[in-house]
Write a structure and sequence with these properties.
Distance between the termini: 24 Å
Largest sheet: 6 strands, mixed
Radius of gyration: 18 Å
Strand order of the largest sheet: 6-7-8-3-9-10
Strand content: 25-35%
Oligomer: single chain
Length: 255
């Protein structure tokens, strides 16, 4: 069993008087795909944003790659951010930039690489995520939903990160596109040795991609583990997720 690369300990999060997380704890291990599952409003995306320092919890600690985020210095935080990539739910590509320019932003900002070498890296990342070469010169408005996800993934991988954070990666994709993107996540994890944290409510992704996951509900982590371990949990929210029609179909198919 590998050591955790992300540790969340006793985290409490509030928006004003609204309590989102109440004493949440979990661990993400090296080179695993870890899912954050839960219903709408369960705080999945909020927790991921806390992991990447876009939000701060009111109580508890989050440690990423050995750095405790509440006490990290500005310089250390800047260096740490370069060790992860983030794919936001809508892609978050800059509409005024081409795909190649979007992917190259971090390389231009954080490295002293020549323009020609940056172009070579951008082409490599485009090919890595399964986009055609000509996509480099397209603008986000000219891309399909699946291409936007892949272009956003290429941008997230631009700095060769150790960690990859994905917020609802299959959201907005049709079943064929979602399955293809799940396969891409697996391929990249195996190829690059990435640790992946994936916010999702998609049962297909839980069955086919995720190694372990946490179920968030009632403002807490109500279950954590492998699919087999979580399905044995008697909590009503867990039963609702995996005992519904889609869950039963998956179970009957032996997946």
């Amino acid at each position: 069993m590998s050591d955790p690369v992300i540790t969340v300990a006793n985290v409490v999060t509030r928006y004003g008087r609204n309590l989102i997380h109440d004493d949440i704890s979990l661990n993400v291990r090296e080179a695993e795909i870890y899912g954050l599952l839960g219903g709408s409003g369960a705080g999945k995306s909020t927790l991921m944003r806390e992991m990447v320092m876009l939000l701060s919890p009111q109580e508890g600690t989050i440690t990423v790659l050995g750095h405790e985020l509440s006490t990290i210095s500005r310089v250390e935080a800047s260096l740490l951010r370069r060790q992860w990539g983030v794919l936001f739910q809508g892609g978050a590509l800059y509409s005024s930039l081409t795909v190649a320019e979007n992917i190259g932003i971090a390389l231009k900002e954080y490295t002293d690489l020549s323009d020609s070498l940056i172009q070579d890296i951008v082409r490599l990342k485009i090919n890595m995520v399964g986009l055609p070469d000509h996509a480099a010169d397209l603008y986000p408005a000219e891309l399909s939903g699946g291409m936007i996800k892949r272009a956003s993934m290429a941008r997230a991988l631009a700095m060769d990160p150790k960690l990859l954070f994905l917020d609802e990666p299959s959201s907005g994709l049709d079943p064929v596109g979602a399955e293809a993107f799940d396969k891409l996540i697996l391929k990249l994890r195996d190829l690059l040795g990435l640790t992946v944290v994936m916010v999702t409510h998609d049962l297909d992704s839980i069955w086919t991609v995720v190694d372990r996951f946490a179920v968030l509900g009632d403002k807490k982590v109500i279950a954590e583990g492998t699919l087999a371990e979580v399905r044995r949990n008697p909590h009503p929210i867990v039963r609702d997720f995996f005992g519904g029609a889609r869950g039963m179909i998956r179970s009957q198919n032996g997946k």
